[in-house]
Amino acid sequence: MRSFIFLTFLFLGCSYAQKELKIDENKLIEFIKKNFKNYQIFDKPIIKAKYKNLILVEFASAGATTNYSVILLYKNNNFQITKIKKDSKYENAIFVIGVGGAGRYGADVKLGEKLKFYEYSIYGEDNDYCRANVYNFNNKAFILDEKESKIERENYCKEVCKMLGIESKACD
After folding, report:
1. CA–CA separation, 159 vs 107, rounded Å?
2. How confident is the model over 25-75, as pLDDT tens digits?
3. How far, rounded to the nearest angstrom, does the alpha carbon of residue 52 sit from its chain's CA centroid?
4. The whole model's pTM is what?
5. First to last CA, the chain
């Protein structure tokens, strides 16, 4: 019984410590201003999620209903823009997120044990699309997990089409 209680407190303590990543907000603001000069940056970036030493930050306006987000690596009180491997190239992990067109198009990003990026444009037309990509972080970059992406895509796209009440090839 003592072992169980000890392990429970150890687990809860580690979980709590992991969630409580302390971030120097002034350094974050300075980093955003320095690295994203060409964007309409917010006065204060919005931290949307933290996982271990990764931070999902909404930092600038992309239009009336969308914003830019970036995933940063936070080590030794310094920030670094993470990368996503697309094909054989590495790109900055910057995303446009939001919803528009009366909910008929949208994009979202979730950061946790895995990075998940969702996007769709569904109007019941031939050019409709729906995507869900799942990435694993390997301490250097986010790498696409094809198998998990396929499963996530099937579930997500069916749910989006159901929510919209539209028949579309993007739902298949």
Report:
1. 14
2. 999 999 999 999 999 999 999 999 999 999 999 999 998 899 999 999 998
3. 14
4. 0.83
5. 50
